[in-house]
Amino acid sequence: MPHVSFHDRSRREFLRLGGLALPWAWGMSSFARSVEAATTAAAKQPPGFGKAKSVILVYCDGGQSQLEMWDPKPDAPAEVRGDFRAIATSVPGTFFGEHQPRIAKLADQFTVVRSMSHADLDHGSATYLSLTGKYHKKISGNPPPLPTDEPTLGAVLRAVRPNGRFPYDAAHLNGPLLQPEIPSAGQQAGFLGPAFEPLVLGNVADGTIPIPELTAQADLPPMRMQERQSLKRALDGYVADLASAPETRKSGTEYEQALTLLDTPQSRAAFDLRSEPATLRERYGVNQSGQALLLSRRLVEAGLPLVTVFWSPSSRGQDKLPDSTDAYGWDTHNDIFSSLKNHLLPRFDQGFSALLEDLEARGLMESTLVVCLGEFGRAPLVALEKNFAGSTPGRKHWANVYSIVMAGAGVSAGKIVGASDRQGGRPEGRRYGPWDTIATIYSALGIDPAGHYRDLLGRPIPLSTGRPIEALYHD
């Protein structure tokens, strides 16, 4: 049969066919617009969007020295270069500090951003900036946490996209973080309230399950558990007057979340480090930071979207416990070279390399974004500071330029993004800030960082003021 176009048909035939086809045409037009909108939206999505199911944030509180770790300056003067040598990595032309030999061999598995920069020079407010992506109202200080604070990353994640597999959406290990002796702002749910608080665990290396209270009793079958829940609900009905108190509401929320953990075998099992082979536990390091990294892997494997590992519970714990490596934070004003060589870097090199290798071996690297950062870096000039403990020189706070590391979930491997000048004092070229790191994390999780969430009064709050670091994903 020869082809007949609409133009060859009579007007009556055209109208007849058109009348029959109009609803279909409208439907196809609507479908086409939907496809076009979806295609346009997909085209606007930054690289790496939605690649991560989970994020592990290794937070090196106190401020890692980029000059001794990720961005050495072997040709700089001695007062800038410091005491350590630079060593070759698995990426030709890329060098790290000499006390990271294991990490240097894995340099072809992650990317270093060497041009991070912001304007906050103290631990508490800079931690707030790093964990929320927004400056504190009191910049360069150590403000106490307030209920009016911006919520931490994990709290916002719960508000935007609650996780159905776990009673929490985020966990903080080795928490709460102290700066140096009071809890730092920026790690709480802030104005979102208690229901959005991350799960906070202390020293996870102390016991086999870091939440002893959640260990199921052998004589507590499911029926008795249900009876206890019913009893709690009945008692709650008699304390309505007390329920209006903030402390009571917070306690009730924590109880319900803990009860859900206890009542979910899969969730409870994720905390049991005994199930790991002794050789693997030793590979991470049988210490506070190493076991926290191991637990972070177990938690994302169980479905938790965000795990933050605070490397040390205090940025300067060595002031009170100089003989305890577990206590050491990265705030190395004085004694920087002995602190890094004898305490911080051996454990970091062991634990962080173990995490990367373990995630890769288990096939989790493709779906897990790993981020390692601190609140800032260290100054390019080595000097002794009289107001701090220690008898040998160190480096003071330096936010003008520092380095962070990202790996997994589509991040290019073996790259260096950005650069610092010859003496490591300022960025050269494109600068990135904590707001961009937060935006990158949201984007990796499939959340538009340019979007909004609602506070408890229904007001729209911007997710981020930054943009994803697209250079992370370009070869």
Structural account:
With 475 residues, the protein is an alpha/beta fold. The chain has three domains: 1-44; 49-208 and 273-473, Alkaline Phosphatase, subunit A (3-Layer(aba) Sandwich), CATH 3.40.720.10; 211-270, no CATH class. The protein has twelve helices and 16 strands. The strands form five sheets. It has an eight-stranded mixed sheet with strand order 6-5-7-1-8-11-4-12, with helices on both faces. A two-stranded antiparallel sheet has the order 2-3. A hairpin with a 6-residue loop joins β2 and β3 (95-97). The N and C termini lie far apart (54 Å). Mean pLDDT is 85; it is low at 1-42.
Topology (SSEs and partners):
Blueprint: H1 11-44, E1 54-59, H2 78-81, E2 86-88, E3 95-97, H3 101-105, E4 111-116, H4 123-132, H5 153-160, E5 170-173, E6 199-201, H6 222-237, H7 246-262, H8 265-269, H9 278-284, H10 288-301, E7 306-310, H11 336-361, E8 368-373, E9 377-378, E10 397-398, E11 402-407, E12 415-417, E13 419-420, E14 427-428, H12 434-444, E15 452-454, E16 460-462
Parallel strand pairs: 1-7, 1-8, 4-12, 5-6, 5-7
Antiparallel strand pairs: 2-3, 4-11, 8-11, 9-10, 13-14, 15-16
Helix pairs in contact: 4-12, 10-11
Structure at a glance:
By secondary structure, the protein is of the alpha/beta class. It has twelve helices and 16 strands. It folds into three domains: 1-44; 49-208 and 273-473, Alkaline Phosphatase, subunit A (3-Layer(aba) Sandwich); 211-270, no CATH class.
